[in-house]
User: Which sequence fits this backbone?
């Protein structure tokens, strides 16, 4: 909680708490709506806001998503290279069947947080129209980039965006 309070000050806190997840969807340069879900393995829960103060790559995926077979392992490599610099990846699995997501991760394991939304409620908050869709959020909790779809060549651009946000000072 201290990190949250430290990362968000004054007007940023007012703007952040005035976001209503029911009526507000993610927009560039606006505060990111919170995501609070159980983990895919069912052993805990997680929230986007618990990572405030870090650059967060919020990734929506499903086991039936072909490009996700490429994106998750490549994101895992980026995560492991940049996590000590303040980079976090939060994946949100949208499979109706938890076992489908778990089986996928058996084949494509990741080291970052994987949340589970079988009701697919959070995609509305982020205007998700296809898989995968990802949102890159700065240290202040503001949406800075939105990625729809994935091909391996996208990683160069994603890494550049992450590096840019990691270099920005925390306000």
Assistant:
């Amino acid at each position: 909680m201290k990190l949250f309070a430290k990362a968000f000050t004054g007007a940023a806190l007012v703007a952040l708490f005035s976001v209503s997840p029911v009526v507000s969807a993610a927009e560039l340069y606006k505060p990111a709506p919170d995501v609070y879900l159980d983990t895919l393995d069912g052993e805990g829960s997680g929230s986007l806001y618990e990572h405030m103060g870090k650059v967060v790559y919020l990734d929506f995926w499903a086991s039936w998503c072909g490009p996700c077979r490429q994106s998750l392992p490549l994101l895992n490599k980026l995560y492991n290279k940049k996590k000590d610099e303040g980079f976090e990846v939060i994946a949100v699995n949208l499979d109706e069947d938890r076992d489908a997501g778990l089986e996928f991760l058996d084949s494509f394991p990741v080291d970052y947080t994987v949340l589970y939304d079988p009701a697919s409620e959070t995609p509305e908050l982020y205007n998700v129209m296809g898989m995968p869709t990802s949102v890159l959020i700065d240290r202040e909790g503001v949406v800075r980039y939105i990625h729809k779809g994935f091909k391996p060549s996208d990683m160069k651009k994603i890494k550049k965006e992450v590096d840019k946000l990691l270099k920005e000072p925390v306000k």
Q: What stands out?
A: Residues 1-24 have pLDDT under 50 and may be disordered.
